[in-house]
């Protein structure tokens, strides 16, 4: 796998609070050949003297870093996203993997850009220093990793966690082998914003027909997201599913119009 594949992987930090951490992340990214740093609603100044002090020769990564208001906006253009969590697997119904097992999957997308979408990306998402990612934020990822650590002190510093994952991404280049269980054409995968549009449309329709209720829709939709994220649908498949939803919405409107006429 060419090292240029690393240029397609975004390192996303959600609401980082420490400038020292952000600077350290920039440094290790440059050490390991990554260049795209995205800060979601940062709570610190990435250009501060503290950040620059820790970045050392990676000031260019700090300067080029994007600051984005929300996680969904930061994921635009991405087809694959892995989220990190420090919680153990008993706290979730999701499967937690090790960085070494999961991270090469991001590289599969990076080597096969679609002809009509040459600049799509993959993403690796890290949460806040004090509480990580929320359950809602984890919903935007397709796979999840937890760095194995001792039970005596399992919590890692943000910059340390990023360093471990960047190292695994760097090492995955030499040992890369596509997983036979995943789609054979990663470039056909639907971008995450396309999937998000489908989820929003699905939730709206399910609320209309009474399958979902406002007070439980969030937890129910979380299960739908897990289901479709495991399927890795292509953009054409998502378009097909959205077409079905539109037809259902049309049928509902026709039925309601007929009810009105019959009264």
UniProtKB/TrEMBL annotation:
Catalytic activity from the UniProt record: uridine(32) in tRNA + S-adenosyl-L-methionine = 2'-O-methyluridine(32) in tRNA + S-adenosyl-L-homocysteine + H(+); cytidine(32) in tRNA + S-adenosyl-L-methionine = 2'-O-methylcytidine(32) in tRNA + S-adenosyl-L-homocysteine + H(+)
Keywords for the protein's UniProt record, in alphabetical order: Cytoplasm, Methyltransferase, S-adenosyl-L-methionine, Transferase, tRNA processing
Biological process according to GO: tRNA nucleoside ribose methylation
GO MF term (any one): tRNA (cytidine(32)/uridine(32)-2'-O)-methyltransferase activity
Predominant subcellular localization, coarse grouping: cytoplasm
Domain of life of the organism encoding this protein: Bacteria
Residue ranges occupied by any tRNA/rRNA methyltransferase SpoU type domain in the UniProt entry: 9-167
Gene3D superfamilies: 1.10.8.590, 3.40.1280.10
Keyword Iron: no
Pfam families in UniProt: SpoU_methylase (PF00588)
Localisation per UniProt entry: Cytoplasm
Quaternary context: Homodimer.
Protein family: Belongs to the class IV-like SAM-binding methyltransferase superfamily. RNA methyltransferase TrmH family.
Function as written in the Swiss-Prot or TrEMBL entry: Catalyzes the formation of 2'O-methylated cytidine (Cm32) or 2'O-methylated uridine (Um32) at position 32 in tRNA.
UniProt-recorded name of the protein: tRNA (cytidine/uridine-2'-O-)-methyltransferase TrmJ
Originating species: Drouetiella hepatica Uher 2000/2452
